[in-house]
Amino acid sequence: MTAKDERAEKKEITCFICHKTEHEGVLLSCRKGRQDLWVCTRCLPMLIHGG
Ligand SMILES: [Zn+2]
């Protein structure tokens, strides 16, 4: 991964499950292990129910 890609990735927030962007829906930040992740409201229920 180049430095340019890394920068683009930080700018564009996407759901870690379906990769929907913040422009396509509401994303919520969450944590798993030591990772900061973003999840959209469509995938959140799946997450809550242990998906
Ligand atoms: Zn999603």
What does this structure look like?
By secondary structure, the protein is an alpha+beta fold. It has one domain. The chain is 27% helix and 24% strand. The protein is built from two helices and two strands. Strands 1-2 form a two-stranded antiparallel sheet. Strand 1 (27-32) and strand 2 (35-40) form a beta hairpin. Residues 15, 17-18, 20, 39-40, 42-43 line the site of zinc ion.
Gist?
This protein is an alpha+beta fold and 51 residues long. The protein has helices at residues 3-11, 44-48; strands spanning 27-32, 35-40.
Question: Any descriptors?
Answer:
51 residues; alpha+beta; two-stranded antiparallel sheet; 27% helix; 24% strand; binds zinc ion
Give the count of structural domains: 1
Low-confidence stretches: none
User: In terms of quaternary structure, what is this?
Assistant: single chain
Judged by helices, strands and strand pairing, the structural class is alpha+beta
Number of helices: 2
> How would you sum up the major sheet?
2 strands, antiparallel
Proportion of helical residues: 25-40%
Strand content: 15-25%
